[in-house]
Amino acid sequence: MQRVSRVFVCLFVGLVLSVAVPGYADEPVVQKAEQQSSGVLQAFDNDRSAKSERVAIDEKTKHLVMFLMGIPLLLLIIATVALGVAMVVYGKRVFVQHMVCAGLSLTLALGHAVVGIVWFYPF
To answer: Long-range contacts: 37-41, Cβ < 8 Å, 24+?
Structure first.
């Protein structure tokens, strides 16, 4: 029991010293580091390089791609629900087809979400 309390006392003293000692750092060094880091960030903000023709996609095309991904996604979800209802209510043996539709729905939904976040999230 005494060993445990010694360990905690040593850890507490180390924690207090680690918090107290950096308070005595030289102010000019800290200011210089802040100026350098703000200069780096400012360089990224001022970057006005031209966008590549291969990467630039207009908003109308982005919306069209999202719409064209959404149609099969909606159809797959409806098919998954219909197959689930057929299994539960009518006792049909369509479990494999239900799981295939569910897997395809999930895959397409994840792709749809990733594309939506990458293209339309305001960075």
So the answer is: none
For the record, the structure tokens of 15 come out as 């924690």
* Residue 95: per-residue pLDDT: 96
CA distance 25 to 13: 20
In this predicted structure, what is the pLDDT of residue 23? 53
pLDDT given for residue 121 in this prediction: 83
3-class SS letters over the chain: CHHHHHHHHHHHHHHHHHHHHHHHCCHHHHHHHHHHHHHHHHHHHCCCCCCCCCCCCCHHHHHHHHHHHHHHHHHHHHHHHHHHHHHHCCCCCCHHHHHHHHHHHHHHHHHHHHHHHHHHCCC
Q: Are 96 and 87 in contact (CB under 8 A)?
A: no
Q: What are the tens digits of pLDDT across the range 55-100?
A: 678 889 999 999 999 999 999 999 999 999 999 999 999 999 999 9
